[in-house]
Amino acid sequence: MSKLNPRQQEAVHYADGPLLVLAGAGSGKTSVITRKIAWLIQERGMSARHIAAVTFTNKAAREMKERVQSLVSRDLTRGLIVSTFHNLGLRILKSELKACGLRNGFSILDGADSKEILKEILRQGDSERDLDAVDVIHKHISDWKNALVLPEEAVSTADSDETLRAAMAYGGYDRMLRVCNAVDFDDLILMPARMFKEQPRILEKWRNRIQYLLVDEYQDTNGAQYELVKMLTLPEGKFTVVGDDDQSIYAWRGARPENLAQLQEDWPALKVVKLEQNYRSTGRILKAANTVIDNNPHVFEKTLWSDYGYGEPIRFSALRDEDAETEWIASDIFHRRLQHGLKWKDFAILYRGNFQSRILEMKLQSLSIPYKVSGGTSFFSRSEIKDLMCYLRLLVNPDDDNAFLRIINTPRREIGPTTLEKLATWALKREQGLYHVCDDFALSEVMAPKSAEKLQKFKAWLDAKREFCFGQNSLQAVNELISDIDYEGWLMQNASSPRIGEKRIENVWQLVRSIERMLEKQEEEDDGASDLEAVIKKLVLLDMLEQQEEEDDSDRVQLMTLHASKGLEFPHVYMMGVEEELLPHRTSIEEDNIVEERRLMYVGITRARETLAMTQALTRKQYGEKIDTAASRFLEEIPQEDIDYLGIGVQKDEAKEDAVAEASIANLRALLD
Ligand code: ATP
Ligand code: MG
After folding, report:
1. Whether the CB of 2 sits within 6 Å of ligand 1
2. Do 487 and 504 touch, CB atoms closer than 8 A?
3. pTM over 0.95
4. Residue nearest to atom 24 of ligand 1 (CA)
5. Per-residue pLDDT tens for 5-41?
6. Which residues form the UvrD-like helicase C-terminal domain (predicted)?
7. Closest ligand to the CA of 607
8. Could you tell me which of 668, 607, 598 has the C-alpha nearest to residue 638?
């Protein structure tokens, strides 16, 4: 266990009032949080169940919990809350259902689901134009929720036709969510915050429960999260928050780095500790990061130094196109691993957008390099996973109209749109959910008896599944559900090639395996009790890929977006597509928001411990067209003497280079065999 420096110790040992640890990347902020939890339990004798720590991603929460458990014996950590903000909100909502106007078994909608509901609301309104604007309106609503603005207030403060339309839709949308017994992601924070404001007795109860609160990555909290923290910790301010304004990269999702400064106003007694030693990177990497971020205006002055030696130059490689770019990275990793006796998991490849990973994944696969993609919601957005999740959602929440509509004809049951419209009208009249009225005996009077029969059959079948699902053999029931509907056959039938069909089937079973593991874990933790409903809720919330990582710390190259890499560290880092229009991103250039992109660059650079390489694809396919790219402006902001420029000549010699790369990989393969 490393020895804390005096400043870190000061931060760990101060628990009598509000504390902010403000420091640059790799200075041990997260370490302060874990050590402080251990200290509160061991030295202060606090019960773990009165401590809550909040982080930004599920992966980070998991790592934090593991670190605490390596410092404190397991029985002393029982009841400790370490979670994301959203999971904390969910926990609060679940135990305060009534106060929040929810019923048991409520659903959590992801972005795509909530957009579907919104579309429905807009359709009931007037124009086609609104339908086109669904993304814009959705964003408005999300922004309002993140700033704790209610529909009425949004309407009264709307300053343009567009915002007024969005504000009107907001009210309808929220009502619809309540009817469906559903919440969206933003509600997970907004609803507890509002409830605390309106119901002091419940707030008091939670203040009693959470007597010390710690928040990591504080610079990325939004308005609603700020309020939640504030309400929970008033009046004494028993909290520690840690953050780095230079790593605020979620403004587009409502994060407010100003919250750091706001703290000083709201808590005059706030103690601020600054950390200056970086324990992560070589001097050269740190210098590059510092000089880049120096180009941004600063509210807080920070310094950061490292005594880990100066290290290798930063490599920059400009390649012919995306194919050559990914090829270069893959073969570089391949060589370095062999040369230096490294593990695959010592390498991370970071990119600006998820779309960049596709070609990279193919390249890694073709070279048999094991890899793992983390972050993002790609697994859950696969249609086969969405289908199955909707079946599961409908199992736990029969009021979930959205889930019902998604699966009623998947696989095809020949229930046409007219039938569904009639069903919806009927449901509205009865003030019940779509699923509930499927076996209403009067249905055959409003639609063809054959259609009514189909609906009735569907409901009888799923009701029977539900009974089994919540018994002992819940997993078996899930398996049967899949075979009853011959989902595998349906997937094969609808796939453009057998390989794609098989891949989809594999994904489905991957989800089932995750459910199985989660149920087992629950049994271990809760003395043999398992609760499929809780597992399904968790699945909806958790990123599936992160879930996989929990069990899977096998040796793989790590792939993720720059955003998802926040808080993590790797010995060897590759940043792909360090180009104008990608990093900084085109929309940010258009919106003149280079500062946020520069922070993203800073986050990327500071993930690296020993070596850092950056690449550019000189031509890149965009919207089906090949365009020439320019190296990112941020590259010029790095001290040029620290950069080793490679591969600029690749264009002339491309055929030869490729042949050489291929041959050397073949050689290495032969060596390995
Ligand atoms: P980020 O801003 O990227 O989230 P951070 O400030 O949270 O970084 P940590 O992740 O806590 O930094 O720490 C960075 C690295 O430094 C980790 O590997 C951690 O184990 C190590 N570290 C922290 N404090 C010390 C110390 N006092 N001595 C040695 N190593 C340390
Ligand atoms: Mg950290």
Report:
1. yes
2. no
3. no
4. 28
5. 999 999 999 999 999 999 999 999 999 999 999 999 9
6. 283-567
7. 1
8. 598
